[in-house]
């Protein structure tokens, strides 16, 4: 079980104190997802979980569906297959225009969720 009960208690305490942002850090395989599932279960509030990439987002969505089989778990990723923000490169005085390729299937899911 390790530090998970302490982490859950600390995070719940922060929520009860009105903290709007908290961070849970840990190495791979230390039970961060399980810890967050326990916080969500105890706090009983809708929760938004952000992931840094699509692979981890899909993994988290699947794990939370297993933790909460009676609750709705939605999975949303950027609807861009490709996105290049506009940029300026001073060294070469080059302007790069914004360019994007939208994934139509994901865009439909995005609209269905809003």
Explain the overall architecture:
Helix 1 packs across helix 2. By secondary structure, this protein is α+β, with helices and mostly antiparallel strands. Strand 2 (87-89) and strand 3 (94-96) form a beta hairpin. The protein has a two-stranded antiparallel sheet. A two-stranded antiparallel ribbon has the order 2-3. The model has no long low-confidence stretch (mean pLDDT 88). The protein is built from four helices and four strands; from the N terminus they run H-H-H-E-E-E-E-H.
Helices and strands: which structural class?
alpha+beta
Poorly predicted parts: none
Shape: extended
Q: For the largest sheet, list the strands in their spatial order.
A: 1-4
**Number of domains in the coordinates?**
2
Give the SSE string.
Answer: HHHEEEEH
Gyration radius (Cα, Å) is: 19 Å
**CATH-wise, what's the superfamily of the largest domain?**
P-loop containing nucleotide triphosphate hydrolases
Please identify, by name, the CATH architecture of the largest domain: 3-Layer(aba) Sandwich
What is the terminal-to-terminal distance? Answer: 38 Å
Estimate the helix proportion, in percent.
Answer: 40-55%
CATH fold type of the largest domain: Rossmann fold
The biggest beta sheet reads: 2 strands, antiparallel
Highest CATH level, the class of the largest domain:
Alpha Beta
């Amino acid at each position: 079980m390790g530090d998970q009960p302490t982490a859950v208690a600390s995070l719940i305490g922060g929520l009860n104190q009105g903290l709007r942002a908290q961070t849970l850090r840990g190495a791979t395989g230390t039970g961060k997802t399980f810890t967050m599932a326990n916080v969500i279960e105890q706090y009983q509030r809708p929760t938004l979980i952000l992931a840094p990439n699509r692979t981890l987002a899909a993994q988290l969505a699947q794990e939370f569906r297993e933790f909460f089989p009676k609750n709705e778990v939605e999975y949303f990723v950027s609807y861009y297959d490709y996105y290049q923000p506009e940029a300026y490169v001073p060294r070469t005085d080059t302007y790069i225009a914004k360019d994007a390729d939208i994934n139509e299937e994901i865009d439909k899911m995005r609209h269905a969720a809003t």
